[in-house]
Amino acid sequence: MKVRGAHKHTIFRVILVCSALALASLAFIFHQGATRPTAASETNIDPVLLAGINSEIKDGDIIFRKGRSLVSSIVMLNDKETDYSHVGICCKTDNEMFVIHAVPGEPDEQGNEKIRCDKLSEFLTPDKASIFAFYRLTCDTSGIAAASAANAMEYYRAGLPFDKALNFRNDDKLYCTELVWKAYLKSGINITGNQFKKLNLNILTDSIILPGHIQNSALLTKIYPHN
């Protein structure tokens, strides 16, 4: 009976460890908050600042943000090469800038976590972004950035879901860095140089693309805030 009891205790501990690892893995998916801000929160952003940014940013520019949540801090602990925890692609429609990105915890009206196309003002609400920056393809003589924005828009219109498994080898689901990487890859540019990070405690996938892999690409230049 003692052996059987010890065996049950061991199984219970294994279950607890696996559950903890699963939660850690899910927490690491680039998440900026469990709830969407209300429309009123958009008014907290300086409209003059937004107007200036809107006039300066182009299709295909890459935007990074750092959230204020505990989960954002967890992301930062896993990525020492950046100050940001989430990333998206800019796309202008009717002279207004939108951000196409993949993020959990922000479901649509039907409750589905799909790729989002949010107004820049919503993407940068104070409860979602403590700091942010824009990067641009340094040499773009053939419209690669604009083509990448179009690719990202295709992902959004296709209604692709957020990839909770963080598996970049599949194309039917995407997570944030994967979306940016694949949108550019489809246009002929590998902005990460195939950099991936192995996470020893991640039981959902073997390796992932981190925000720092994109931000520190030799192919990108920071354009805002100005250097």
Please summarize what this structure is.
The protein is α+β, with helices and mostly antiparallel strands. 35% of the residues lie in helices and 17% in strands.
Walk me through this protein's architecture.
This protein is of the alpha+beta class. The protein has a single domain, classed as endopeptidase domain like (from Nostoc punctiforme) (endopeptidase fold (from Nostoc punctiforme), Alpha-Beta Complex). It contains 7 helices and 8 strands; from the N terminus they run ααβαβββαβααββαβ. Helix 5 (144-157) packs across helix 6 (176-185). The longest helix is centred in the first third of the chain and has 27 residues, at 2-28. Residues 7-43 have low confidence and may be disordered.
Strand and helix layout:
Layout: H1 2-28, H2 47-56, E1 62-66, H3 70-78, E2 86-93, E3 96-101, E4 116-119, H4 120-123, E5 131-137, H5 144-157, H6 176-185, E6 197-198, E7 207-208, H7 211-215, E8 220-224
Antiparallel strand pairs: 1-2, 1-5, 2-3, 3-4, 5-8, 6-7
Average pLDDT score: 79
Strand order of the largest sheet: 4-3-2-1-5-8
Q: Uncertain segments of ≥5 residues (pLDDT<50)? A: 7-43
Summed up, the domain count is 1
Number of strands: 8
- CATH homologous superfamily grouping: endopeptidase domain like (from Nostoc punctiforme)
CATH topology group: endopeptidase fold (from Nostoc punctiforme)
Which CATH top level class fits? Answer: Alpha Beta
Major sheet, described briefly? 6 strands, antiparallel
β-strand percent reads 15-25%
What is the C-alpha radius of gyration, as a whole number of Å? 19 Å
Tell me the span between the first and last alpha carbons: 69 Å
Helicity, as a percent range:
25-40%
Shape: globular
Structural class: alpha+beta
Helical stretch count?
A: 7
